[in-house]
Amino acid sequence: MKKILIVEDDISIHNVLNEILATRSYEIYHAYSGTEALLLLEKGKFDLILLDLMLPALSGEEIIKKVKNIPIIVLSAKVSSEDKVNCLLSGANDFITKPFDSKELLARIAVQLRNHHNSVDTLKYKDLDLLSDNHTLLVCGTKVSLTKTEYAILKQLLLNPSQVITKNKLLELISIDTEDCSEYSLRVHISNIRKKIRDYTEKEYIESIWGIGFKIKE
């Protein structure tokens, strides 16, 4: 479940955002000042921040400069182009002026979550680390060589660790990175990935769901 932090000093807007986000499976957290937001960010990990600019103690602009690697959507009554440009150049990912349309807000949230999800530098799961910059797999800290197709398959499985991915869906997802995979060769690639991981750990990471597809074993 994606965690969204709402940073806003107006309780009525918090309530409106709660109603909008309740239509999706998001875990919602609230901060009513900039300093409270920073405290929450120090204690926990969030997938996205909805940020007002005019906050007590610490402004939204200051928050933007302090936050790294978390998508920020600014929700503000400020409408000047200068305000929008400054926020975006400082590190905000999107800017929506108040009042906002609920459907548009949900769409923009979905886009930012998807973009951030797809740009993750390292995918971690227990003893596995999949590095996107050089397509390297680390098993218990040891480098393991993967083919382009093996990397694409493992990447999709690790992006959805609790989800069963059907064979057809997996083939569709990896087609972006590789076009040389069929349903038969998919099973071969999965088998090869298992063998490479098994060389360095006794744990089984990829589970076959008979007649359906594959998932990361919990």
Radius of gyration: 21 Å
What portion of the residues fall into strands of 2 or more residues? 15-25%
What is the total tally of β strands? 12
The level 1 CATH classification of the largest domain is Alpha Beta
Element pattern in H and E? EHEHEHEHEHEEEEHEHHEE
Tally of separate helices: 8
Kindly report the CATH topology of the largest domain: Rossmann fold
- Overall mean confidence score, pLDDT: 88
SS-based class: alpha/beta
How would you describe the shape? elongated
Query: Share of helix among residues?
Result: 40-55%
Overall description:
With 218 residues, the protein is of the alpha/beta class. It folds into 2 domains: 2-118, 3-Layer(aba) Sandwich (Rossmann fold); 122-216, Arc Repressor Mutant, subunit A, CATH 1.10.10. Helices cover 42% and strands 23% of the residues. It is built from 8 helices and 12 strands. The chain has helices spanning 11-21, 34-43, 60-66, 81-90, 102-118, 148-159, 167-174, 183-198; strands spanning 2-7, 26-31, 48-51, 72-76, 94-97, 122-125, 128-131, 136-139, 142-144, 165-166, 206-209, 213-216. α3 (60-66) links the parallel β3 (48-51) and β4 (72-76). The two termini are 16 Å apart. The mean pLDDT is 88.
Task: Please give a handful of descriptors for the protein shown.
elongated; 218 residues; 42% helix; 4-stranded antiparallel beta sheet; single chain; 2 domains; Arc Repressor Mutant, subunit A; 8 helices; 5-stranded parallel beta sheet; 23% strand; alpha/beta; Rossmann fold
